[in-house]
Amino acid sequence: MNYTLHQLQVFLKVSQTKSITRAAEELHLTQPAVSIQLKNFQDQFEFPLTEVIHRRLYMTDFGIEIAGAVQNILNEVATINDKTLAFKGKMSGTLKISVVSTGKYVMPYFLSGFVGRNEGIDLQMDVTNKSKVIESLKNNEVDFSLVSLLPDNLSIERIELMQNKLFLVGSPHLSPEADEKEKHPLQSQPLIFRETGSATRFVMEQFIAENNWPVRKKMELTSNEAVKQAVIAGLGYSIMPLIGIKNELGNGDLQIIPTPGLPIKSNWNLIWLKGKKFSPVANAFLQYVQTEKDRIVQDKFSWFEAK
Fold it and tell me: What is the CATH number of the domain that holds 217?
């Protein structure tokens, strides 16, 4: 056996993404380069690591076993690098976090001070919908996740960061006429939803069902930004997290539609698997958040807390 660390890194990424194209994108390599490294690694084994069925790549049982061993090897290599820098008095390593889409307006403020103090730290932050965030946490692919809805059937620990508030919002051009103000807003306008798997979508549907809202027509879009732009354009109303529409409210592109029962309130939580063995970097970040969260909320989100 004469495999290289580069081959191990490429094979592990292919095993995680089940795609040479996605592995190449995430490793910032060309597809041919990934294919060559994967072939060179495969050539050292008499059993196949992957197989292609109907143009889709799958890991064989043997490949899954090897991927687990490769992950352990690369973890040990990272530990060696971290210990070397720690001996020099520097914090190093990679902090891995998955964040629900709206959390991109929250998480950076809890990271900037920590990363600024520790220049040797690398950061990987995946911003996606709730389903994928929980999946990455469940598979132990990240150190922490940021969510507003706690997962079911997963043993976790958490630290509450701040409130999350959702309001019904619309374009100022869709303001109801004076003689229509007694009607429910959704009797005249469609409601715009996020895609299935989104925490905002789940909260909206739960609230609508509990309050018997008259949803005349609905649209479904696959990102907060797409929903926001659709609402601004006057395609309908949506229930949106306040944290993501500060600028649009300030410049008059959006307005909050006063509605009984709103805002919907929850909390942003930083969560991690119960019993997880933290790296020095992850442990240091958790301590930083516990110490600094109140100051960060006061400095960066006082406008939000006052709403």
Answer: 3.40.190.10
The conformation of residue 128, written as its DSSP 8-state character, comes to E
If one counts the domains in the chain, the total is 3
Same domain, 276 and 142: yes
DSSP calls for 255-271: EE---TT-SEEEEEEEE
Distances in Å between the Cα of 246 and the Cα atoms of 99, 105, 241, 304 are: 19, 10, 10, 9
Q: Count of alpha carbons within 13 Å of 119, Cβ hemisphere only?
A: 1
How far apart CA 271 and CA 155 sit, in angstroms, is 10
Q: What is the pLDDT of residues 227-280, one digit of tens each?
A: 999 999 999 999 999 999 999 999 999 999 988 889 999 999 999 999 998 888
- Asked which of 76, 100, 131 is the last residue of a domain, the reply is 76
Q: Does any domain span residue 143?
A: yes
What is the span of the domain harbouring residue 223? 163-265
H/E element holding 21? helix 20-27
Model confidence pLDDT, tens digit, residues 43-81: 999 999 999 998 899 999 999 999 999 999 988 887 787
φ, ψ of residue 18 in degrees (nearest 5): 55, 35
Say if CB 27 and CB 13 are below 8 A apart: yes
Q: Quick one: 119 and 239 in the same domain? A: no
Indicate whether 19 and 34 sit together in one domain.
Answer: yes
Q: Are 260 and 177 part of one and the same domain? A: yes
Does pTM surpass 0.85? no
DSSP string, 147-210: ESSPPSS--EEEEEEEEEEEEEEE-GGGPPPGGGTTS-GGGTS-EEEPPTT-HHHHHHHHHHHH
Nearest residue to 107 (alpha-carbon basis) of 264, 115, 239 = 115
Do 130 and 97 sit in the same domain of this protein? yes
